[in-house]
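Field: COMPLEX_INPUT
Field: COMPONENT_COUNT = two
Field: RESIDUE_TOTAL = 837
Field: MODE = joint
Values follow.
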Amino acid sequence: MTALRALALALLAACALAPLAAAQDAYPSRPITIVAPFPPGGVADLHARPLAAAMEKVLKNPVAVVNKTGAAGAVGMQFVATSRPDGYTLLLALSSISIIPEADRLFGRQPAFTVDQFEPIALLSADPTILVVRAESPWKTAREFIEDARKRPGQISFSSSGVYGTLHMAMELLSSAAGIKMRHVPYGGAGPAITAILGGHVDALASGPAAVVAHIQSGKLRPLATWGDRRLASMPDLPTFKELGYPDAEFYIWAGLFAPKGVPEPALAKLRDAVRAAVKEPEFTGAMEKMQTPIAFKQGEEFRKFFDADARRLADGVRRVGRIEEKK
Amino acid sequence: MLETFHNLYLGFAVALAPSVLLYAFVGCLIGTVVGVLPGVGPLAGISLLLPATFGLDATRAIVMLAGIYYGAMYGGSTTSILMRIPGEAASVMTCIDGYAMARRGRAGPALAVAAVGSYLAGTVSIVALMFLAPPLASFALRFGPPEYFALLLLGLLVLAYMSSGSMVRSLAMAALGLLLGMVGIDQMTGYFRFAYGVVELGDGIGVVPVAVGLFGISEILATAGQARPPEVLKPRLRELLPSRREWRESFGAIWRGTGLGFLIGIIPGSAHVISSFVSYAVERRLSRTPEAFGKGAVAGVAGPESANNAATSGAFVPMLALGVPSGPIPAVMLAAMMVHGVTPGPLLINQQPALFWGFIASMYVGNVVLLILNLPLVGLFVNLLRVPYPLLYPGIIVFCVLGVYAVNSSVVDVWIMVAMGLLGYVLRKLDFEPAPIVLGLILAPMIEMSLRQSLAMSDGHYAVFLTRPIAATLLAVGLVLVLLSLRPLVTRTLDWRTRLAMVEKGEEL
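Field: COMPLEX_OUTPUT
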């Protein structure tokens, strides 16, 4: 039953590109689709589903989640960027929405989409990454870590979720802020990157707090600092890089809701109200609590400012990393 | 030891509670259906159904998802045997001898051997999982990129050493597979390779559309091209069960497959699929009648099917003991646990003993459920072969298209499947084996990634492969294999491969 439903939804999403009779009725008059550009069980998906359930309740209109995956999220994002701006196709994007077009530009490719093609609706969560090292490693504080990295450039290694991925960018922002150089070993996803540090194959990792908290509690990993602009509620003893004197090392793994640019204002207003109400619904708050991800709701000008600053930081980061060329 | 049994007792108390039992059964049932549908493998099945478990409590949800996982691994053999369509990548090897058996009217025995082999492999490897999980898990963590690379290289050498027939033809196909595996975003630099502006190709060419195309679609095309349609098989009831000889031949294969699969399954990475390839190669090498492989050798079904089910349990070792995923499917299972507020990791076993042991016990129960579910279904499935071809084949194609599309909602995947079907048809006419293409496609990204990660770790020094004990040992074993295969050149005796090729050509020794 559910499999059929999922399949039907997938087919429905594929048909969404086909021209549909323009609805003259008040928005929303037919099911809304939220595209999660990553597979089920990923961060985007785990935000999209409870949000859809809560919005459904608020709007009294079906809201479905479709996972349109591929090319590190580019496939789903491009799909929404070029879909009809009628408010019936939305995107649940992560920070990578600002990275992908910049990386495309770097390689001289026609970008699959640009950030200007999206209308930001709301920020749902923004978890700062934290720096972790193995418990046996010599560094007890972030200061020791950075000093050692400065003494031995290119010797301390870190794993990441992939080249230009979120976990990579966090480390690059730190490297440039602190003037250090570390050795990058990319993995295919955050899970394998955590496995790599647990197995002792790399020295350090930037990670979302929820993904490593169990390993910190079990004494396998040690947190050194956070990229947030203030300390984490769950780890109040952990200093921020800002406190340590590196204000440019600020980075969040965030999730937000977007629409394609050009959605009529009445529909947008309705959507904004719906999301504002939805994030207070137990469907959404309960799910976020279980994922140990604090809700960071921002809307309108506030979200746009956050989004623009973040996009600028990430674009700078991508350009600073530059093209990765083979060693001569 | 005693404590383990006490805990297991607790686990069975959880797993045999009617509501949990019900979800285990539903999971196994859905998994079997998912596995039987061509193209839709366990990963797609779990991913699609994950949201449906959001309303359940953690234990039920995990038990149901695990049921889908191993149910799909069971079900994957069905279409491979009956229609030469691999339900998922791990069933590719089952296609070869399983389908050959079906064409000889032994579909029932092939399905029964696959089910019993899967059951034994599943059950034995859960016992291993229970007692060996903690020590094995920390050993598995020592497998970093250099060890992984050495293992994959060894796997390739084992396969090359043990494959039969024309080495040149096998290697040519493997090379084609490796080439196809180069398509997509370069994981180390972010360059698009051979994508020609198609964003969907950024993730590379999927294994499922290629396997379904090369095996299934090409088979349908070839049958349609025959002047006279093949006779519709009419399986008789007494032919459903394997003969005594078939049992004897599968017995050893099942145990070897189980051991092999479990060990390969533990290692983090996505090498699980190669367990079935290696098992097939080993069985053929050990067989007294290697020439029967490819023409319906029952050991060629029993070994790989046991291996891929044992690998399923093996994959749970790092997930349960350490909270780290050993592949894409355990990764989705971990996400499912997070959704239900269970933090997977080393503390899980102490914090949530009911969930942990209930899960272990439910795997025993699930394997029994699957056996009970699958053996009677053998009779039903075999009757599918009675459907006349003009109805059966279009139906199969529809399911292939739907299944391949559903995995990523990608039309590009469907086109890849069609192209691979045509390629498979041509290769069949020219007498090339398609299996090495699939293997090459699976291995190419993994070998490349692990090699380049190793070099990134060592700052470009190849010595990293020799200074790490596990990697060095694996490479040394590989070297011995290479030397062994060179021996006939020196001693001028006929080795088994040459003899086999001569037997196949019908020549006298």
